[in-house]
Amino acid sequence: MSVILRVGAGIAALILGYLVLGFIADHWAWFASVAILLGGTTLAGWFLFRSRGHEHRDRALTAERHALMRDVDRMNIPDFDVMIGRLLVGLDAKRVKKFGHRKNDLGCNYVVTFSNGKRIIVRAKKDDRAMRSRNGNRHVQILGGEIKPRWDCDAGVLITNANLHWMHHASRNEAVAAQLGVLIVDRIRLAEWIETGEAPVELRPVRAAIPASSATAVQ
């Protein structure tokens, strides 16, 4: 009796499978649409989940760096200069020489010499509450004009805790910096450098790839 039941169940399963396959064959377009809809919904949900995860991590990272820069903002100028000096020493350059301040408000000067012979003049300028709105572009221009005549260097770097990339000032500052061979390391890039210990890629000793100023390029 059990054998008859098993045979009957097998035949019933075959008949049911045949009917199901026939139904699917007759309505394949509908099934394809449902499959595409379900697949698209699942894929969209996966991307949304991942993007929200990245956004959460980005927000946490941004908050950490804001807190870090608030500590930098509270530093006095000598402590700020010392911090920048330590970052420059971390570049593993051949030589880092500090020239200090020149009795003006331009900041602290360092000449960094890389093992490939390239020399850069680095100016550390703590935000004086006028860097962002008025003086950022002025500091870029002054540094750019001193790269070769005063310091005999190939390029310049302006490091500041001010934000020189806000609103319409970003494009203007970057355009002037690119023309004069100055790399701007302002608030966001400085926070990343301090937190990760990794310098901007243009300053890493393997490349030291800051574009030379136009004045340097023709000489």
Features:
single chain, 219 residues, alpha/beta, Restriction Endonuclease, 2 domains, five-stranded mixed beta sheet, 7 helices, disordered C terminus
Number of helices: 7
Give the full name of the CATH homologous superfamily of the largest domain.
Type II restriction endonuclease, HindIII
Number of strands: 5
Q: Biggest sheet, in brief?
A: 5 strands, mixed
Average pLDDT score = 79
Morphology: elongated
* Strand residue content: 5-15%
Determine and state the CATH class of the largest domain.
Alpha Beta
Record the strand order, biggest sheet: 1-2-3-4-5
Topology order in helix (H) and strand (E) letters? HHHEEEHEHEHH
At CATH's second level, what is the architecture of the largest domain? 3-Layer(aba) Sandwich
InterPro entries: Restrct_endonuc_IV_Mrr (IPR007560)
Pfam families: Mrr_cat
Domain Restriction endonuclease type IV Mrr: 73-194
Transmembrane segments: 7-24, 30-49
Structure explained in plain terms:
The protein is of the alpha/beta class and 219 residues long. It has two domains: 2-56; 77-217, Restriction Endonuclease. 58% of the residues lie in helices and 13% in strands. The protein contains seven helices and five strands; from the N terminus they run αααβββαβαβαα. The chain has helices at residues 2-26, 28-73, 77-89, 131-146, 169-180, 187-196, 214-217; strands at 95-100, 108-113, 119-125, 155-160, 182-185. Strands 1-2-3-4-5 form a five-stranded mixed sheet, with helices on both faces. Strand 1 (95-100) and strand 2 form a beta hairpin. The chain starts with a helix and ends with a helix. Keywords: Endonuclease, Hydrolase, Membrane, Nuclease, Transmembrane, Transmembrane helix. One of its GO terms (biological process) is DNA restriction-modification system. One of its GO terms (molecular function) is endonuclease activity. Residues 73-194 form the Restriction endonuclease type IV Mrr domain. The chain crosses the membrane at residues 7-24, 30-49.
